[in-house]
């Protein structure tokens, strides 16, 4: 959707639009993992689905100094839980390197977002419908003065709102992120980032109205203890709000036309995991692109380990990822995990803890490529073993395997119409073996 400005300085405008209809069916009531995971919350996991989407993104600017952009993605779904909502609706304004964004926009955090091969970021993946936020930050990376492009930084500061279909209603989101990138375009480059989120405020059925004045906001921002007498006792002795964050590390090596990227996301929930006392917990990944043959476009492997949690005794351990003693719906929105979909979430258990398994070991492999000029494919395979939580361990570990084969065809000479089909399989202990299918047609264009 890039547009160029002519020498006259006239306003350049572009518009991209897209429409999709699709359906998913399965051999059991629930949908297989890879038909529903990382789909921005579009798929009802408990039943067959039929849905239609229309979307558009527009951009206008007069120079490189400023740019305005807006977009929407309207979803209508027929399923056991029918819905019609905007999964994306935003406006964005950039002036030089500064950018203001308002609304919902699909924006996964971390180096694992590209190509649809990853299991997803531990902090904000493609799994859930985006939260509405107001964000002020940089428009991508900007160069650090006097480094000749070797060092670049980016970041943002945001305030958001959670949906009210959760244990605590009217919850706020605080988020800030800062990244440093070194050596872009060189043989070896590296990125280092820190992302901090906090759930705060709201109305709890157990604790009543939670602190949400300006003092509470700054307590959430700086992750310090609640000073308000009406705050839950745990927030007065620990910190106000539910804090979830990552250290986001990555490195890329260029080998001719090939590019190999390694990355690690280290998850923290409190001081002990912030100090890496929960090592080796986190997501580890390796991605290889630039093969000589187009039949393999990219290969991505990921290993997830979250069993340590700084030990089984609190303090300092039992980090209990994605769960919180006040915000019992956990790190989720509308019954869907905001981070990795590999964790097990049961929204009906929010009276206790909605995330019923956050001690996991997982291996994952994704491959994509081209069969012919009119046909491409995507393969996913995931093995994972669940141990429950430290407070509520499973009597026996539960091993699960999930697979996906997706084919996308361009049936006509124009690439405006695409037809896609996918088959997904789940198998393993303490779960229903199932097979599912997805069929869809999309039309896209630009003017």
Task: Describe this entry's structure for a reader.
The protein is mainly beta and about 450 residues long. The protein has one domain: Beta Barrel (Porin), CATH 2.40.160.130. Helix content is about 5%, strand content about 50%. The chain contains 4 helices and 25 strands. The protein has an 18-stranded antiparallel β-barrel. A two-stranded antiparallel sheet has the order 11-12. A two-stranded antiparallel ribbon has the order 17-18. Strand 13 and strand 14 form a beta hairpin. The longest helix has 9 residues. The radius of gyration is 22 Å and the shape is globular. The N terminus is likely disordered.
Explain the layout of strands and helices.
Layout: E1 12-26, H1 33-36, E2 49-61, E3 66-78, E4 83-95, E5 98-104, E6 133-138, E7 142-143, E8 151-161, E9 172-182, E10 188-200, E11 203-204, E12 208-209, H2 214-222, H3 233-237, E13 242-255, E14 258-268, H4 271-274, E15 282-289, E16 298-305, E17 332-333, E18 336-337, E19 344-345, E20 355-357, E21 360-372, E22 375-388, E23 393-409, E24 417-428, E25 434-446
Antiparallel strand pairs: 1-2, 1-25, 2-3, 3-4, 4-5, 5-6, 6-8, 7-8, 8-9, 9-10, 10-13, 11-12, 13-14, 14-15, 15-16, 16-21, 17-18, 19-20, 21-22, 22-23, 23-24, 24-25
How many discrete structural domains? 1
CA-atom Rg in angstroms: 22 Å
Architecture, CATH level 2?
Answer: Beta Barrel
Number of helices: 4
SS class:
mainly beta
How does the major sheet shape up? 18 strands, antiparallel, barrel
CATH level 1 class label: Mainly Beta
As a percent range, the share of strand residues is over 45%
Counted beta strands: 25
Write the CATH homologous superfamily: Capsule assembly protein Wzi
